[in-house]
């Protein structure tokens, strides 16, 4: 009897196998062709000199050696780190602050949420155009406001000293609402009873925020942190749109992805670009690994 | 005290709203001004002479309707295929047992961890080999297959109770029926999230269309804005008109489906 059931089960199991393979086949075929094979080819490219006709000549570690000696690589890494180190903490703090304000009994909550979310559904290229116009040195509205307060106008985007900061402002503006929505969802999952108990103990809203909200929200904050760092590290669209090739601020705003793009598709240095893309991968991997280890110290999973 | 707190909260939130909304407002206002008016110092707030000149200017120089259709088509095709392909695979990964399952899932997951730049050059070469450079399919082909979408949908399938399927199996339903009639309706929120994410990504995609397509007739809105900028360096009304037209469809979509948008984003934080 039991043997019969077992036999039947395996028959069903085998049928399931077939169904499963059928279900994953389209994805797998596409992933092998457009992701796995390109990944391998790209790694191979990074050890080659790839000419205009995409013929690869093996050059060993030449691209990597060149990369470590290339000033542009170090500068673009520096720019990118600077961007991430400012945009990520500032945007998360702002998102958290707005989420905390919205998590109270307040009228018009959904209208606020909608407006704050708006920048994250808009095209970065379009957003960049608008901000470029706002930052414009001649008739930009930012300079007009500054002049009205008796301050001096500046060429915000042309000046290598301020250009990257302008791009950071746009980056922050675009991401705050998005992260706020995720954090607000996390906040709504925190039981009100913690706050009631803390209030009885005499803890004020600020103390409650740091003693209850932050620790209980730490898994969500961690998620937002990881995703923000990874996407911040790959900033491209806004830089491409806001700072032109001929700009004086070109070098001071060149991010690693920008450098990759220029080498791969403008300068025709495919092998070298491949090495840069591997560098981007390794750096992101290291940062994420550090985060994963570091989280044990501050993230609470209950 | 309490009303004062509420007033402060509103004040702070309104300040944020102002900063968030201003660029949109400025974009729309500028698009209806004349070029001469935008050169004035100090700038005018409302258009002195309301004109739609900027819109006709860009319509004349860019095959705008064509670019718009390219973007729309590419977005719709990406969404439809990605949802179908990811949902099928996600169901198998979440609910079926088969040899090699873990290995294959790890393969999918590891793609999720690799930054997109790694794949770009070889993907370009594949499109070239297929003879598809500067065509509509080039815009969406690699994006039909998504590790992220598969992972997201798998999370949704995993959260459903197993008993449902077992009951259906006992009733004699086969896997296809279970998938189509029992499971699919239950992961609707997941599908909605995926549709929104993919639509947003495909509509706003920038680097990839720029790489594979070169003629404006085959371009999507993002790169078209870039060439608009190159063509009208100092014509800010024209630039803003282009930006307005590029962002409006997604904003309209957002206002219609805002609940789903916001829940979809909130979900990823909780589920991911």
TrEMBL record, chain A:
Compartment(s) where it occurs, according to its Swiss-Prot or TrEMBL record: Cell membrane
InterPro entries, per database record: ABC_transporter_permease, MetI-like, MetI-like_sf
Signal peptide extent: none
Principal location class: membrane
TM helices/strands, residue ranges: 20-40, 83-102, 114-134, 162-187, 208-233, 272-293
Keywords noted in UniProt: Cell membrane, Membrane, Transmembrane, Transmembrane helix, Transport
PROSITE patterns hit by this protein: ABC_TM1
Membrane listed as a keyword: yes
Gene3D superfamilies: MetI-like (1.10.3720.10)
Domain ABC transmembrane type-1: 77-291
One Pfam family, short name: BPD_transp_1
Protein's membrane topology: Multi-pass membrane protein
Family: Belongs to the binding-protein-dependent transport system permease family.
Entry-linked PANTHER family: ABC TRANSPORTER PERMEASE PROTEIN, INNER MEMBRANE ABC TRANSPORTER PERMEASE PROTEIN YCJO
Protein name: Sugar ABC transporter permease
Species assigned in the record: Ohessyouella blattaphilus
Organism lineage string: Bacteria, Bacillati, Bacillota, Clostridia, Lachnospirales
UniProtKB/TrEMBL annotation, chain B:
InterPro entries: MetI-like, MetI-like_sf
Membrane topology: Multi-pass membrane protein
UniProt organism field: Ohessyouella blattaphilus
Entry keyword tRNA-binding: no
Superkingdom of the source species: Bacteria
Location in the cell: Cell membrane
Domain (ABC transmembrane type-1) ranges: 68-257
One Pfam short name: BPD_transp_1
Predominant place of localization: membrane
Name of this chain's protein: Carbohydrate ABC transporter permease
Residue stretches spanning the membrane: 7-29, 67-91, 103-127, 139-157, 178-203, 236-257
UniProt keyword list: Cell membrane, Membrane, Transmembrane, Transmembrane helix, Transport
Family label: Belongs to the binding-protein-dependent transport system permease family.
Keyword Transmembrane helix: yes
Entries under Gene3D superfamilies matching the protein: MetI-like
């Amino acid at each position: 009897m039991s043997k019969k059931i077992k036999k039947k089960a395996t028959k069903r199991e085998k049928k399931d196998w077939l169904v499963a393979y059928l279900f994953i086949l389209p994805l797998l075929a596409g992933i092998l062709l457009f992701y796995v094979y390109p990944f391998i080819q790209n790694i191979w490219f990074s050890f080659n000199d790839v000419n205009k006709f995409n013929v690869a000549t093996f050059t060993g570690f030449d691209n990597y050696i060149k990369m470590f000696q290339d000033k542009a690589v170090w500068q673009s890494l520096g720019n990118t780190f600077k961007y991430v180190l400012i945009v990520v903490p500032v945007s998360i703090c702002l998102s958290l602050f707005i989420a905390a304000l919205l998590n109270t009994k307040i009228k018009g909550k959904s209208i606020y949420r909608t407006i704050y979310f708006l920048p994250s559904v808009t095209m970065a290229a379009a957003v960049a155009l608008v901000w470029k116009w706002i930052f414009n040195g001649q008739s930009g509205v930012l300079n007009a406001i500054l002049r009205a307060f008796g301050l001096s106008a500046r060429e915000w985007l042309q000046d290598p000293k301020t250009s990257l900061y302008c791009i950071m402002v746009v980056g922050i503006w675009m991401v705050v609402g998005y992260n706020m929505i995720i954090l607000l969802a996390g906040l709504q999952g925190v039981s009100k009873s913690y706050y009631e108990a803390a209030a009885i103990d005499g803890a004020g809203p600020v103390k409650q925020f740091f003693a209850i909200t932050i620790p209980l929200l730490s898994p969500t904050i961690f998620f937002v942190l990881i995703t923000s760092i990874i996407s911040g590290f790959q900033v491209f669209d806004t830089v491409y749109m806001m700072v032109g090739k001929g700009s004086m601020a070109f070098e001071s705003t060149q991010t690693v992805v920008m450098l990759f793009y220029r080498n791969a598709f403008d300068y025709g240095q495919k092998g070298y670009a491949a090495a840069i893309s591997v560098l981007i991968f390794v750096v992101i991997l290291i940062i994420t690994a550090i985060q994963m280890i570091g989280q044990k110290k501050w993230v609470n999973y209950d | 005290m309490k009303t004062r707190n509420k007033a402060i909260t509103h004040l702070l939130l309104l300040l944020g709203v102002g900063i968030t909304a201003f660029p949109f407002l400025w974009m729309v206002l500028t698009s209806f001004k004349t070029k001469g008016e935008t050169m004035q110092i100090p700038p005018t707030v409302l258009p002195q002479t309301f004109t739609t000149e900027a819109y006709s200017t860009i319509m004349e120089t860019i095959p705008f309707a064509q670019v718009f259709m390219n973007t729309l088509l590419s977005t719709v095709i990406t969404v439809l295929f990605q949802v179908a392909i990811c949902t099928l695979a996600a169901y198998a990964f979440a609910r079926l047992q088969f040899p090699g399952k873990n290995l294959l899932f790890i393969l999918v997951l590891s793609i999720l961890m690799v930054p997109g730049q790694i794949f770009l050059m070889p993907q370009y070469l594949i499109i070239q080999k297929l003879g598809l450079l500067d065509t509509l399919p080039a815009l969406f082909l690699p994006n039909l297959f998504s590790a992220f979408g598969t992972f997201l949908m798998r999370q949704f399938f995993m959260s459903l109770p197993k008993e449902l399927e077992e009951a259906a199996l006992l009733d004699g339903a086969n896997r296809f029926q279970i998938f189509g009639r029992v499971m699919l309706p239950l992961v609707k929120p997941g599908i909605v999230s995926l549709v929104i994410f993919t639509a947003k990504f495909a509509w706003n995609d920038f680097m990839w269309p720029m790489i594979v397509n070169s003629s404006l007739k085959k371009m999507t809105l993002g790169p078209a804005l870039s060439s608009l900028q190159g063509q009208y360096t100092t014509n800010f009304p024209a630039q803003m008109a282009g930006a307005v037209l590029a962002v409006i469809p997604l904003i309209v979509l957002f206002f219609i489906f805002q609940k789903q948008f916001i829940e979809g984003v909130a979900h990823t934080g909780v589920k991911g």
